[in-house]
Amino acid sequence: MRLWQIQNTKLFSKGKNLVTTIRKASATNNELIRSIISFPNKGLFGYKNGWYLNTIITGVAISPDQDLPRGWRKRKNENIAVPDERNKEGKELANTFNSQIKVDYDLVTNLFGLMIDKVYGTFTIPSIYISRDGSEIYICLDDRYDLSKDHRFKEVLLSYVEKMINR
Predict the structure, then answer these.
(1) CA gyration radius, the chain
(2) E strands, 92-136, where?
(3) How far apart are CA 83 and CA 73, in angstroms?
(4) Is 90 exceeded by the pLDDT of residue 88?
(5) Nearest Cα to 4, choosing from 166, 122, 114, 134?
(6) What φ, ψ does residue 53 adopt, rounded to 5°?
(7) Which residue has the higher pLDDT, 107 or 39?
(8) Which of 155, 74, 152, 154 is nearest to 113 (CA)?
(9) Can you say how many angstroms the Cα of residue 165 is from the centroid of all Cα atoms in its chain?
């Protein structure tokens, strides 16, 4: 895994637009799932799946003794409600979950024109980060992407990126 800071102003604006797109998609997904929840809950459960840059919501956090309306079921050994696809209501809920906006990871490599010939074995999935103050954008790429000769990017340390995005 290598981290690169974008130095080129044109690429910086493209990166900032991508970050905005990712944030909007995550907010839209959040609103979409909240709109179909008809019971008290403790929040949404989701993750950044390796293949997507935005958060995909997979369930709803509930209290252990909570009764769920038709169409929902509790995951085994977890306090998470998910659509119960064994009935009509659950299938409709599952369709809503499946209609979430997914921002694919290869947008990062395509946006910046970065390609490698073959992807095989284990590899780092590309991702993009923006500094807290919005002045710097970083991309995380597999070691196979060597941008050291590309003046549009500057390699940075993980500790530096963590400091800048978590200030």
Answers:
(1) 19
(2) 127-130
(3) 6
(4) yes
(5) 114
(6) -85, -25
(7) 39
(8) 152
(9) 16
Residues 6 or more apart whose Cβ sits within 8 Å of residue 81: 39, 41, 59, 60, 61, 62, 66, 68, 72, 73, 74, 75
Where do the structural domains in the chain lie, given as residue ranges? 2-19+105-165, 27-98
Residue 109 makes CB contacts below 8 A (sequence gap 6+) with 115, 126, 141, 145
Residue identified by tokens 């369930």 is 59
Contact criterion met (CB below 8 Å) for 44 and 27: no
* Structure token pair of residue 100: 């979430």
Residue with tokens 């409709």: 92
Q: 44 and 26 in contact (C-beta within 8 Å)?
A: no
DSSP symbol at 124 = P
Mean pLDDT value of segment 60-85: 92
Distance of CA 79 to the CA centre of its chain: 23
Question: Would you say 59 and 83 are in contact if contact means Cβ atoms under 8 Å apart?
Answer: no
pTM of the prediction? 0.81
Comparing C-alpha atoms, which of 84, 144, 94, 97 is closest to residue 119?
144
Distances (CA, A) of 58 to 43, 62, 74, 139: 11, 13, 12, 26
